[in-house]
Amino acid sequence: MSEVKVPFYGHVRQYHNLKADIDAAITGVLESGKYTMGPAMTKFEGELTQYTGIKHAIGLNSGTDALWLAFLAMGVGPGDEVITTSNTFFATAEAVWLVGATPVFVDCEADTRNIDVTKIEEKITPKTKMIVPVHLYGQPANMTAIWDIAKKHNLLVVEDCAQAFGAKGDTFKLGEKSDALCTSFITAKNLGTFGDGGAVFTNRDDLVEPILRGRNHGSIKRSCHTVGWNSRLDDIHAAILSVKLKHIDEFNDARIKWAKLYDKELAGSKIKLPVAKAGYRHVYHLYVIETEGRDDLQKYLEENGIIALTNYPIAIHEQEGFPFSNNQGLSYKVPGITGAGDAKPYLPETEKNSANCLTLPIYPELTEDEVKYVASKVLEWENGPGAKYFK
Fold first, then answer.
1. Would you say residue 280 lies in a domain?
2. Please, what is the angle between helix 235-245 and helix 248-265, to 10°?
3. Are the CB atoms for 63 and 287 separated by under 8 Å?
């Protein structure tokens, strides 16, 4: 591999840009002596509710725990089916399996790669309890249609917003057409700490206490326990996130700026480019292109000092061990898990997406020259060694 000219991640650059404020925030927590369930976490939760307009925000240790604690709070468990998509990070379905329920996969749209809302109702059965749309790559799914379907069939809705913090729909805000919204604050996210973190957002008062208990060993008061887990958001991470939250809109504006520049530089290419729906605020957690010969293009970019990665090259239903029935593929026993059925789902668009996807570097700290350089090398490959894939 040649010298890296354009790295895939920008979090070190972001740290340097915000170093004084982040260092001061960390020092403040360390000097306070309150590192867990302390004032920095409480302050950040309040800032989240103010930013999103959602009534409750509960800080957690990861987006994964956010999902499964939300599922548990809503009573999802063995015998239930949860409709979601397969072309996303494994944790979405993993959280369903962990509560003992069964994920039922719906194919994605050919353009946005979000869940195809026209195919949801055909997957609804008497066992269906919930729909979990993923706002893939930074663009909201069609929550208006999903919420209408859910109300029609008396289903719960939890939004997986791990990739779309700060995004908006055309006529809706995220979190207003669902029972809860879950997000991740892992390092590479649009709003990310230097480690792990997550949150559940909800306007439902009845979900708050079960999630608060769930994140802290079943306790909301010292020494009084039911059953729970250690799923808390540490105060150091909360303090870092408070600093970054002040900049989230400008971070997302920069991502949009670079995405538009990629679009301009790659205009006319035969490679499939991302599609942003009219009226939506797509915040480009990922800038994903699709092409045959994806692996060859990735190697070509690497040879030219560009790190491009794949999100997500193996769809969940194609993972080793699927359908994970009888605890297959899990490293420990989880009571109640019965798997996802015996037949492989028919998901042609999902499989096309996973076979051809390649993510180009996109983060606020990129430069115009870097974006243009990446785009030039993509076109150079398309018109040179990759030309054989476009005949």
1. yes
2. 60
3. no
Indicate if the pLDDT at residue 327 is higher than 80: no
Fill in the amino acid letter for 256: I
Q: Is 267 left (phi over 0), alpha (psi -120 to 50) or beta?
A: beta
Interval 237-291: pLDDT, tens: 999 999 999 999 999 999 999 999 999 999 999 999 999 999 999 999 999 999 9
Domain end point (choices 246, 265, 283): 246
Does 39 fall in a domain? yes
Candidates 316, 280, 289; CA nearest to 139 is 280
pLDDT, position 324 = 64
Note whether 172 and 272 are same-domain residues.
Answer: no
Q: Which residues does residue 34 pair with via DSSP β-bridges, in sequence order? A: none
Q: Evaluate if pTM is beyond 0.85.
A: yes
147 plus 271 within the same structural domain: no
Q: Does residue 297 contact residue 346 with C-beta atoms inside 8 Å?
A: no
pLDDT in tens, 6-47: 999 999 999 999 999 999 999 999 999 999 999 999 999 999
In this structure, are 29 and 142 located in the same domain? Answer: yes
Q: What is the dihedral of CA 155, 152, 85, 301, to 10 degrees?
A: -130
Are 127 and 188 in a shared domain? yes
Please, which pLDDT band fits residue 329 given cuts at 50, 70 and 90? very low
Q: Which residues touch 60 (CB under 8 Å, ≥6 apart)?
A: 66, 69, 197, 198, 199, 200, 215, 231, 232, 233
Mean pLDDT for the chain? 94
pLDDT at 343: 60
Q: What is the CATH number of the domain that holds 262?
A: 3.90.1150.10
Query: Residue 232: phi, psi to the nearest 5?
Result: -80, 155
Question: Residue 261 sits in which domain range?
Answer: 249-312+351-390
221 phi/psi in degrees, rounded to 5: -140, 140
Count structural domains, the chain.
Answer: 2
